[in-house]
Prior knowledge:
This protein is of the alpha+beta class. The protein has a single domain, classed as Spore Coat Polysaccharide Biosynthesis Protein SpsA, Chain A (Alpha-Beta Complex). About 30% of the residues lie in helices and about 25% in strands. It has helices spanning about 15-25, 45-55, 75-85, 135-145, 175-185, 210-215, and strands spanning about 5-10, 30-40, 60-65, 70, 90-95, 105, 125, 125-130, 130-135, 165, 170, 190-195, 200, 205. It has a seven-stranded mixed beta sheet, sandwiched between helices. A three-stranded antiparallel beta sheet has the order 4-13-14. Strand 13 and strand 14 form a beta hairpin. The termini are far apart.
Amino acid sequence: MNIATLCVFVYRNLSIPTLGSVFRLQQSTIPLRITFEFGDALISRARSIAATKFLAGTDDVLVMSDDDFRFTPADISALVATCREKQCIVAGVTPLKSGEYTAIVPFENLDQEPWRSRNNQPMQVKYAGGLIAYHREAFEKMSKSLPLLHQNSSIEPFYPFFMPTIKGDEYLSEDYACHERAAAMGVEVWVEPKCQVGHLTADLVVTVDNMDRLKELY
């Protein structure tokens, strides 16, 4: 039986919505291993270490969540199923905290939020952020072109899968940089609209349902 891993990255505090999401997953029947990475303010390093640990194991899908996301077992199930089917990288629809738009970068000449017209069908995109599932094959392919860092130091060795980079005049943050590297190795990035994530702010949880209302208010 295939088992997926959910890794939650916690810098200071694990939010109540995320804790509730994890608790509901623990009560579900989804074959899932839940792990945490605590206290590393450098998220690119934390994600890279988690991915390297995952690669040393046998699970087939790694789902990465920040400590301020809200999701359901159905969200995780849809994300993992599409990731396994396509053997690629699959993101849920995660709004930014501002509610201005989601963390999805489509290919050129597409609307900013093209997933809205897809009738809940997965679509291929350029980059995506937020709640993301990575198939083992993505990291296996990328590891062939990356050095294993800190092999002779006190820091845990890791492949820099999520090291930010520059493409032309664009700065690519950790997730987008990883997806750029993956694409260079033939790994596709998709969005699964059935997975819609809440993003916690100081005042409320931003979702795709209240994004338009937030734009009107702010």
